[in-house]
């Protein structure tokens, strides 16, 4: 009889889960996105809301999306428009748009939540959402508005990149590997733009990545002082 070289599985510890759960705050964000998308999609198919529900998606985008004009009016004193720099993250252009966003938010929220805790993860997401919206409104020009959770998701990618950068540094490995994920995503964005035309929403994604990474530096253990100390030891 052949000998098995497989190691036996460790015994389960009572009261523990074999899979680390998604932080509740991340799950709550995904449920809000899913609930809004479900209502909009069902309304668009005529299942809820009556005939007027067919235009719910367009109405939500017009009411909650971010654009340079929104920033102009907000700066002129229409304070209620500032809420758009958060609410735009919960409105999506299609079921696929929302599904991909929800899946990425679950995965990245889980990783960042394990490294920073759920409150700081929420802070990163919100800071990246606001930061991405502001960068878009300042630089995108008079083109289509910004909506969807992706700037906040890219902010979580920024936080994940920073956490991985710290981990690689402690292990004595090449820290440039931490930027592999954002490099692949930006290459995908470039390829998509070449094949199908440029979409200005990538500006919000980049702004979200930068804002999320900067927020992670501030919220990580030790904050900026710890970062400077690590850089001095290189």
TrEMBL record:
Signal peptide: none annotated. This is Rhomboid family protein. Residues 82-220 form the Peptidase S54 rhomboid domain. The chain crosses the membrane at residues 25-48, 85-109, 121-141, 147-166, 178-197, 209-229. It is a multi-pass membrane protein. It is found in: Membrane. One of its GO terms (cellular component) is membrane. It comes from Rubellimicrobium mesophilum DSM 19309. GO terms for molecular function: serine-type endopeptidase activity. The keyword Membrane applies. Keywords: Membrane, Transmembrane, Transmembrane helix.
